[in-house]
DNA sequence: CAAAAACTATACCGAACGGTATACTTTTGG
DNA sequence: CCAAAAGTATACCGTTCGGTATAGTTTTTG
């Protein structure tokens, strides 16, 4: 068993359930079945552990969003593809999504928020570019790509947040409804 | 100067900027110009301090949302009134709103999330009841009050979150646009 | 005016914090 | 086969954590 991967896995579980600040290095080491110097050998510091964790997942996530946010001339299809990518990633990595969501809304001076900021910005930009591309076909959207990107991601995150707290299920039915509601709102 | 109120004020600033877990009791005491036993005299524990802080603000906030979420037969007006109440409270209490937002998305086993849960549920319920009342006049909405409440609050929180990070301004223009977009999405 | 209640500070508790110096074992490469 | 590099553990560092015992000072109240 790979120690490094195992530490990352245990850290993700703990961070996502209790929060980065509330989890001690000692605790991560114990859950991983190793000792602190081993953890420090691989990650250098507690913050280094968090960075490694974020990078290992976010690279994959951002790549998927990048692919899904390509605009091919049909906005409804693009929105649905994008929403599906978000829902699918969240369902495949619920613990990570929970942690990422908490870090995104974490206080600005916290360690977590600082590290997360740049990673989530890249993703946000992909979506904004999709709306910018679509606005060529939908004149009345012009100049509002940023707001659309933010609110669309916001709605998706709202749904995923509810799903993580078992307040709803991420069915295909919900996805289509949410996308349709958003899309009709734009056309107004 | 009232010590109790002063401690609450300083705690709010620190919690909202650095996060509940990352702030020590000692730190709050120093900023407040008092010592730890004084703080413990008033609040009993660190968690007691957080509870007192939440209750002192949330009572006011929930009352305002309760008032603003009354449905008087006109959904567009209700939505706008409600959105205005959210924006106004956030603008009047930016530090508190930042903290409350962070706590809402905090990991489920963290102290903050447990304390926040019940408070935010009351508010959520007000909004859901508004949509339920409105669905009598809008048949096609029936059965989706919960989803509408969640996504509407989600959009508002998205906007407020962006405003807190200086990514946009909460102008009346934005408010009307967001409300209109949401409302047209419903009618679809 | 005295006694009880409320308030505040000094000094301290054990535990946990993030992090490391040192040494020992295992693996790797010439 | 040996040496260098990588990996791991024991034991410890100083600091800060949340919380408190005790005692002194105000303020309120009978």
How is the topology of this model organized?
2 copies of one chain form a homodimer.
Chain A: H1 3-18, H2 25-32, H3 36-43, H4 46-68, H5 75-92, H6 94-104, H7 111-134, H8 145-164, H9 172-187
Helix pairs in contact in A: 1-2, 1-6, 3-4, 4-5, 4-7, 5-6, 5-9, 7-8
Chain A binds a DNA duplex (30 and 30 nucleotides) through residues 3, 24-26, 34-38, 40-42, 45-46.
SS field, number of helical segments of chain A: 9
Low-confidence stretches of chain A: none
Q: Can you summarize the main beta sheet of chain A?
A: none
Number of strands of chain A: 0
Question: What number is the mean pLDDT of chain A?
Answer: 94
Order of helices and strands of chain A: HHHHHHHHH
C-alpha termini separation of chain A: 56 Å
Structural class of chain A: mainly alpha
Report the helical percentage of chain A: over 70%
Largest interface, C-beta within 8 A: A-B, 46 and 46 residues
Beta-sheet strand percentage of chain A? under 5%
Q: Any idea what the shape of chain A is?
A: elongated
Oligomeric state of the chains present here: homodimer
Radius of gyration of chain A: 18 Å
3D architecture notes:
- The structure is a homodimer of 188-residue chains.
- In chain A, helix 1 crosses helix 2, helix 3 crosses helix 4 and helix 4 packs parallel to helix 7 (111-134).
- Chain A starts with a helix and ends with a helix.
- Chain A has 188 residues and is mainly alpha-helical.
- Chain A has nine helices and no strands.
- The model of chain A has no long low-confidence stretch (mean pLDDT 94).
- At the A-B interface, helix 1, helix 6, helix 8 and helix 9 of A face helix 1, helix 6, helix 8 and helix 9 of B.
- The first copy, chain A, binds a DNA duplex (30 and 30 nucleotides) through residues 3, 24-26, 34-38, 40-42, 45-46.
